[in-house]
Amino acid sequence: MNVLRDIFSQGAQMLLVLLLAPLLTGFVRKAKARLLRRRGPPLLQPYRDLVRLMRKDVVLADNASWLFRVIPYLMFAGTWVAASLVPTFGNGLLFSWTADLIAIIALLGSARFFQALAGMDVGTAFGGIGSSREVMIATLAEPAILMTVFAVAMIAGSTQLSTVAEFMGSDAVGLRVSLGMAFVALTIVALAENARIPVDNPATHLELTMVHEAMVLEYSGRHLALIDLSSQLKLLLYVSLIACVFVPWGTATADASAATLALGALLYIGKLTVFGFLLALFETSIAKMRVFRIPEFLGAALMLALLATLLRFVSGSL
Amino acid sequence: MISVVLWAVACLLALAPVGIVLSARPRGSFMLYGACLVLTATLCITAVLHLLDPAHPVLRTTLPVGLPWLGAHFRLDALSAFFLVVINLGGAAASLFALGYGRHEEQPGRVLPFYPAYLAGMSVVVLANDAFSFLVAWEFMSLTSWALVVSHHRDAENIRAGYVYLLMASFGTLALLLAFGALASGPGYDFDAIRASHPSAALSSLVVILVLLGTGSKAGLVPLHAWLPLAHPAAPSHVSGLMSGVMTKVAVYGFVRIVFDLLPEPEWWWSMVVLLAGGPTATLGVLYALMQRDIKRVLAYSTIENIGIIFTGLGLALAFKAQGLDWVAALAFTAALLHVFNHALFKSLLFFGAGAVLESTGVRDMEKLGGLIHRMPKTAFAMLVGCVAISALPPFNGFVSEWLMFQAILLSPQLPSWGLKLIVPAIGGLLALAAAFAAACFVKLYGISFLGRPRSDVAASAHETDRFSLAAMFSLAALCLLAGILPGLFIDALAPVSKAMVGNVMPHQTGLEWLSVVPIAESRSSYNGLLVFVFAALCGTAAASAIHRLASDRLRRAPAWDCGYPDADPAIQYSASSFSQPIRRVFGSLVFAAREIGEMPPPSSPRPARLTVEMRDLIWDGLYGPIAIAIGFATIRINVLQFLTIRSYLTLVFVALIVLLLVVSL
After folding, report:
1. Hey, how many other C-beta atoms are within 10 angstroms of the C-beta on B117?
2. Which helix or strand (DSSP H or E) is residue B76 part of?
3. B460 and chain A: CB distance < 8 Å anywhere?
4. Pairing of strands B595-599, B610-614
5. Pairwise CB contact (< 8 Å): A113 & B439
6. Which residues lie closer than 8 Å to B655 by C-beta, 6 or more apart?
7. Are the C-beta atoms of B361 and B450 separated by less than 8 Å?
C-alpha cells in the first residue's frame, strides 16, 4: 500500500512538473505584459507553441552531426529527472534518495554541458558566442550554487532535499544570517541559470548580448520544442527549489493523508504564482546588464554564498 | 602471489633489451606491445585478486640485489595492490592502444626499449619496501620516462621539455632522498623498521614538507608543476597517457605511503599545508588548461587540476585523522583514492583520443581542427565520454569521487582547529570553481576540435583510427560508465586500503538497496548513479518515441540558418582562443596578468586592425625566473675557481682539510 502510494506520488510529481512548467512561463510572460500595460499572450500560449513546434518538420543544418540531434533529448531527460527529484507539494518522493542536492545541480550541469556543445556543432559564429558566454556564466554560477548548497546542507545536516525541506519546515531552524545570504545568492544564480533579465533576455532573438537564444539558434521543430520545454522545466525547478528550502510551509510530509497532499498542492501552486509574479516584477523594473557586468553580479552571489558557508563553519547558530 | 607479480615485473624489465632487437623488425612494435599488454594485464589481474582477498594478507619478500647488507625488500599490501591495479590497468590500456598507434612511430628504436622498462619502474616503486629500492625505482621511472619524452628529439621544444623535466625530477628525488635520510637515521632503510620507530614531531614535520616537495614535483602540484605541461605532451601519445594518468599517481602513492603509513600520528597543521597546496593547484591548473590551444597541453594542465583534487582529499583525510575522526578520514581518503582510479581512466582515454587525432591529422593545435565528429565518429564518441567524465558530470565516474569529496567537506565543521575551520570552506569553493572550469575547458576542447566545421585541410581529410586504438578507448569509456553507475563496488574494494592507512572504512556499500552510495547515513546523503542513468535513459527514449509517433518524425537538411547571415568560411567560427576570451577577461587579468591590446588603424588607412593578447605565467616569472638568474649568477662567480694557480689550489685544499677536521672533532 505504502509502496503504491509512493509510486503514485512520484509519478504524479513527474507529470505535474511537466504539465505546470509551460504554465509558469506563460504566467510570467502574462504578468510582465500586464505590468507594462500590454495585454500579453494568453496564459496557455506556451502549450500551443510547444504543440505547434512538435508537429513541424525539423530543418537540420547541412553539417549538423548526430550529437546535435541527440542533445535535445539528453537535455530534456536530464532536466526532467532533476525536476522530478525536487519536492513540490509533498516530501516523500520515492526516489528522493537517488540524487541529493549536489547531484541535482550536477544533472543540470550535464544538461548545460550538452547545450553548450550543441551551440558549437553547426559551426556558426552565433552558436560559438552563445556557448562561450554560457560557460563563462556557468563558471561563476555553479560554484555559487554549490556554496549555497553547502551552507544549507550544513544547517540542515544533510544534502538530501527531502530531509532539508523537512528540517526547514521544523522549528529548529530559527532566523539565521547565513540562510538570508544563501537565499540572496540562490536567487541571483536562479536568474542567471534561467537566462532571465538582467543576465540574459528571454524575449530577445537578434541581439549581440544574447546567450541562451544564440546557442539554440539552429534548432527547429521538435528539437526546439524539447529545448524550450527543458528551459521551462528548469525555471520551475529553481522556483520549487527556492520554495522548498526557504518557504517550506505547507509541504506535505512523507506519510501525509490525501487531504494534506491536496492542501500541499494548492499551496505549491500559490507559491509558484507568488514567485512568478515577483520574477515578472523584478524583470520589468531592471535593465539588462552588459555582458562583462555579469561576472560582478554573479561574483556577489558567489561571495555571499561563501560567506554563508564560512559563517556556518565559524558558528553553529548563525 | 608476490612472486607472480615480481616475475611479471622482471619479464617487463627483460623486454627492454628485447625492444632494441624488435625495433628493427617490421612487426616488432606489435610484438613488443602485445607482450607488454599480456604482462600488464597479468599484473593487473593479480593485483585485483590480492585487493579483493578477504584476508587482506601482507606479503613480503627479499631479493639479494641492491645494497649488499640490505638486499631489496618488496611488500605487497592493500595500498600497493591498489596502485598496482591503477598502474597496470593504465599500462594495459596504453599497450592495447599502442598495438595500433605504435605502428606510426617513425623511430621505434627510441620508444620500444624504454616503454617496458618504464612500466616496470612504476610497478617496482609501489612494491618497494625499503628506501633504497624505492629511490632507485623512482629514479629509474623518471629516467625512462625522460627518455620517452625526448624520443622525438629533432623538435627543439621537446629537448627543452626534457631538460626542464630532468631538472625537476632531480629536485624531487633530492627532496625524497633527504626525507628518507631524515627518517632512516635511526632505524635504517627498511620500511618496516621505519614504521616501528618513533621519530620526533619536528623530524616528522620536516619529512612531511620534504615529501610534499618531492612527490608534489612529480605529481605536478603548483608551483612545482612547470615541467608537466611541457613534458607530458612531448612524449608519444600512449606514453603521455601513462605519464599523466599513471605516473602522477605513483607520486600520490609515494605521498600516501610515507605520510599515512611510515610516519606516526599526523600533526593537525600538516593537513593545512597539504590543503593549501591542493586547493589552489586544482583551480589554477584548470584555469591554465582553459587558456591553451594545444590539445595535449590542455590535457596535461587538466592533470594538474586533478592532482590538486586528489591532494585536497588527502589533506582532508589527514586533518580528520589528526583529530581522531577516522570515520570521516576514511570518507575523504576513499574519495581521493577513487579519484586516483577515475582520473587514470579518463585521462588515459583522453590522451589516446588526442593521439588518434594527432595521428590522423598531424596537428595538435585546436585552431586547425574542427568537425572531426564526421570524419572520426567512433573516436569522437569515446572522447565525448571522457570529456563528460572528467567534467565531473553524472552519470559518469568523475562525479562520484567529487561528490564524495564534497560530502567530506560538509563534515569538516566538526574539526576543532580554527585554522582549518577558516580554510576548508575556501578550499571547498576552490574545488567548486575547479569543477565549473573543468566543464568549460572540456566544452571548449570537444566543441572546437570535434564539432563545427573543419578549420584546415588536414582536419577535413581526417580518417578514423585503427581498431586496437578504438578498443583501448572504448574499454576505458566503458569502465568510466561502470565506475559511475556502480561506484559501490569500487568503494568497497578500497576498504582494506582505507583500513590500513586511516584506521577506518566507509560503510559497506554493495549490500544496499538499489546499489546506492551512502557515505554516512541515508538521511544525510545518498547517490544512485545507476538509477539516475536508467531514469534519464528512460525519460529520453520515452520522449523520443512519443514525439516521433504522435507528433512528427520528418527531417529536412538545409544550409545553416545563422540568423540569415551564413558565411561559408570556417574561419567565421569561434576559435579556441575566442571561446575562452570571456573567462580570460574575468579571471585572466588576475591570474595571468592578461592584457588585450587592440590596434585600430586611422580611418583612411587600409591596414587591418590587430588584436594582441599578452599573458604571462606569473609563477614562471616570479619563481623560476629568479632562481635561474641566481644560479646563473652563482655559476659565473664560482667559475673563477677553475682558473687558479697551483698555490691557491693547495691553500684551498689545506683550508678544506682544516675545516673538515674541525667539524669531525666537534
Report:
1. 23
2. strand B72-76
3. no
4. antiparallel
5. yes
6. none
7. no
CB B578 within 8 A of CB A132: yes
Q: Does B528 touch chain A (CB under 8 A)?
A: yes
C-beta atoms of B572 and A316 within 8 A:
no
Q: Cβ distance B419 to A313 under 8 Å?
A: no
User: ipTM, 2 decimals?
Assistant: 0.95
d(CA B192, CA B6): 19
Alpha-helical regions (H) of chain A: 2-35, 45-55, 66-83, 101-121, 125-156, 161-169, 177-193, 212-215, 221-246, 258-284, 294-314
Interface residue A131 vs chain B (CB under 8 A): yes
A134 CA to centre of own chain? 15
Q: Which residues of chain B have pLDDT under 50?
A: none
Containing B72, the helix (H) or strand (E) segment is strand B72-76
List phi, psi (to 5°) of A58.
-90, 130
Q: Which of residues 388-447 of B touch A (CB under 8 A)?
A: 388, 391-394, 399, 403, 406-407, 409-410, 412-413, 421-422, 424-426, 428-429, 432-433, 435-437, 439-440, 442-444, 446-447
Lowest pLDDT segment from A248-257, A284-293, B13-22, B197-206: A248-257
- Nearest chain B Cα distance for residue A175, angstroms: 20
Which pLDDT belongs to residue B49? 94
* Residue closest to A110 by CA, chosen among B445, B532, B214: B532
pLDDT band at A206; cut points 50, 70, 90: low
Which three three-digit cell numbers place residue B399? 562525479
Q: Are B480 and B389 in contact (CB under 8 A)?
A: yes
Cell readout for A265 is 498542492
CA–CA distance, A115 with A169 (Å, rounded to integer): 35
pLDDT at B453: 93
Q: Which of B385, B532, B538, B545 to mutate to test the interface with A (most CBs of A within 10 A)?
A: B532
| Contact A63/B at CB under 8 A | yes
Question: What's the CA gap between B227 and B28, in Å, rounded?
Answer: 32
Please name every residue paired with B75 in a beta bridge, in sequence order, or none if there are none: B60
Beta bridge partners of A108: none
Residue with cell 560557460: A135
**Cβ of B392 and A106 within 8 Å?**
yes
Band (pLDDT 50/70/90 cuts) for residue A208 is low
CA of B363 vs chain A CAs: smallest distance (Å):
20
Burial status of residue B432 (CB atoms within 10 A of its CB: 0-12, 13-18, 19 or more): buried
Residues paired with B611 in a beta bridge: B598
Residues of B whose CB is below 8 A from A163 = 523-524
Q: Which helix (H) or strand (E) holds B59?
A: strand B59-63
The pLDDT score that the predictor gives to residue A205 is 64
Q: pTM for this structure?
A: 0.95
- Is the distance from CB of B186 to CB of B247 less than 8 angstroms? no
Q: What is the DSSP string of B82-121?
A: HHHHHHHHHHHHHHHHHHHHGGG-S-GGGTTTHHHHHHHH
Nearest 10 degrees: CA dihedral of A205, A208, A210, A213? 40
pLDDT score, position A260: 83
pLDDT at position A209 over 70:
no
Secondary structure class of A217 (helix, strand, coil): coil
Give the one of B388, B522, B573 whose C-beta lies nearest to A123's C-beta.
B573
Q: What angle do CA B358, B359, B361 make, to 5 degrees?
A: 65
Task: Give the span between the Cα atoms of A132 and B60, in whole angstroms.
Answer: 55
A129 touching B (Cβ < 8 Å)? yes
Lowest-confidence pick of A3-12, A37-46, B30-39, B399-408: A3-12
Touching check for B579 and chain A: CB below 8 Å?
yes
